[in-house]
Write a structure and sequence with these properties.
- By secondary structure, the protein is α/β, with parallel strands linked by helices.
- It has three domains: about 100 residues, Periplasmic binding protein-like II (D-Maltodextrin-Binding Protein, domain 2, 3-Layer(aba) Sandwich), CATH 3.40.190; about 90 residues, D-Maltodextrin-Binding Protein, domain 2 (3-Layer(aba) Sandwich), CATH 3.40.190.10; about 70 residues, Alpha-Beta Plaits (2-Layer Sandwich).
- It is built from eight helices and 15 strands.
- Helix 3 packs across helix 4.
- The chain starts with a strand and ends in a 6-residue tail after the last strand.
């Protein structure tokens, strides 16, 4: 059985469970901690997102879904093997106006964060010595309460920082998102490879749609230039002489523009269909 670590709560959990469902794995019911899925040859363990890299790095579990920030902060012997495209965030320093403009300006200051491993590694890489204060949450208030001079935290819109009278300092520390992790140096495993293919199939299915349309044969070359597909489109003759049917995968975000272009070439019966799953 492939042992998979899945976030049990928070921003990572819902999106991770949805992706696993689309990949064909059983869903969790009633806050179960373990879901057996013998049809897929897998067991899903629902754990705190912050603990997942540790379990995977220890070899107790084969693969896991967590955030890049949590992976790096853990110090576990685990590595990122695939980006999953959700739960994106930016990790930044912030302080009161005039505190500084670069990471070098933070030398000797107290920096509060829930991600002390990430912060310490970033400071070390920049050659900056500072005191890192670990807090479990709500670090934005740390400066007001005199616990720290600077904070390091996930920034989405920056609204909370502005409300606290803080501004960003320096370049981003880290760009994070949900990732698949595996124990560093783990031996190749066909079950892991199959899991990765399923997840890749979900990402492709979310990014592409199938487009079908009819076009006169003399305009086919122009139409194919608009919808080249991943390798090449499928072309089938129609009963009506001089017409062909075309099927091609196109980027979801470009679908409406492509339909406009095809209509201008004389294409008709243009249909767009969602892709539920795929393998490339």
């Amino acid at each position: 059985m492939l042992r998979i670590a899945v976030p049990n709560k928070g921003s990572l959990s819902e999106a991770a469970c949805a992706m696993l469902h689309e990949a064909g794995y059983r869903q969790r019911k009633d806050r179960e901690l373990l879901v057996a899925d013998p049809a897929s040859g897998a067991e899903l363990f629902f754990l705190r997102p912050r603990d997942i890299a540790t379990y995977v790095g220890s070899g107790r579990l084969d693969i896991g879904i967590t955030g890049r920030d949590l992976l790096l902060d853990s110090g576990a012997a685990a590595e990122e093997i695939m980006q999953l495209g959700f739960a994106r965030s930016t990790f930044r320093f912030a302080g009161r106006p005039g505190t500084g403009s670069t990471v070098e300006d933070l030398a000797g200051m107290r920096i509060a964060s829930s991600y002390t491993g990430v912060v310490q590694a970033h400071l070390a890489a920049a050659g900056v010595k500072a005191e890192v204060v670990k807090l479990d949450g709500a670090v934005e208030i740390a400066i007001e309460l005199g616990v720290a001079d600077v904070i390091a935290d996930v920034v989405e819109t920056g609204t909370t920082l502005r409300q606290m009278g803080l501004e960003l300092i320096g370049a981003p520390i880290l760009q994070s998102e949900a990732v698949l992790v595996r124990r560093t140096g783990a031996e190749p495993d066909p079950a892991v490879d199959q899991f990765v293919r399923r997840m890749q199939g979900v990402l492709v299915a979310r990014r592409y749609v199938l487009m079908d349309y009819d076009i006169r044969a003399e305009r086919l070359k122009e139409a194919v230039a608009v919808t080249p597909g991943l390798e090449s489109p499928t072309i089938s003759p129609l009963h009506t002489e001089g017409w062909v049917a075309v099927r091609s995968m196109v980027l979801r975000d470009d679908a409406q523009r492509i339909m406009d272009d095809l209509w201008g070439l004389g294409a008709r019966a243009i249909l767009v269909t969602d892709i539920r799953a795929c393998r490339l």
